[in-house]
Amino acid sequence: MVQKRVTVEVPEEIPMIQVLGVNDANLHKWEEEFPMVNFWVAGNEIFIQGPDVDLELAVRTVQTQFTKTNKIKRIIPDYGLQTNQRARLAPALSELPARAADARYRAVFVSREKVIRPQTEGQARYVNDINSHTITFGIGPAGTGKTYLAMARAVKALLEGEVTRLILTRPAVEAGETLGFLPGTLTDKIDPYLRPLYDALREMLDTGTISRMMSDGTIEVAALAYMRGRTLNGSFIILDEAQNTTSEQMKMFLTRLGFGSKMVVTGDITQIDLPSRQPSGLKQVSEILSDVPDIAFSYLSAADVVRHSLVGEIINAYDTYESQTVLRSPQGLGRK
Fold this sequence. Notes:
- Helix 9 links the parallel strand 10 and strand 11.
- The chain is α/β, with parallel strands linked by helices.
- It contains twelve helices and twelve strands.
């Protein structure tokens, strides 16, 4: 049977939730209505593949979700990617049709204007680990969605009543954690270090909701130094930039876990800003807790980068350079 593909481009002014439905309800309905057709989503594009007759009906069905003009075009074999992008993303692209029916790739969170879902195999495993474990470590380079997906899952848990609080924290290593010596209120002191967490949060909730939830303590954003001595019950807790925690800080943070809570710890062990003789708590913790039940270690790589295509190329280039540098050094040669 000849399979053809088209892509439906959703205009930017139309929220994806309007097309896909809450919790992908419309998408699931299409999958049931057209069992011979595969659907999958990337950004504002809906890819549809199937036999001619079924494909035409499926496209018309998707179009009925629109309230404004949309643009439809045939997908070219390389999906419009540049040569270097095709090479890097080839494994993921080859799997796209099968993902339509794969529950792991369904939306993590749907807001008024955004549908957030895993885009790669590594991201899908990471989200599954978060769903199925009390503590999950997401370790990988910049741009792999570690913090963003964790935040989406946390906001979903909060809005659906799985937890009653969302707590976001990271070490303020740039200030040496000596926040008491910085001028201003506590918020003034820690805001610059927590800006990436705020940015992600604002993509999922409107400003008024965030302000209200922060005022009543439903959402708390704090530097790691202020977590000591607390027990966090009924909370979804995210520790970002965990590569910059010491072993003592990591132990302190993990032992804050209370009943009915879930933790996600994210970091990039290639971007450690601690003093050279200070070991990273994130690097040590996998050796210490790897065999503890209900704790998952999820590793992401350059193949999971979903930022500009150059980011993945940059990460690979640095990895190659650093591995060659180690081999050329006397210490590296001595370890061979």
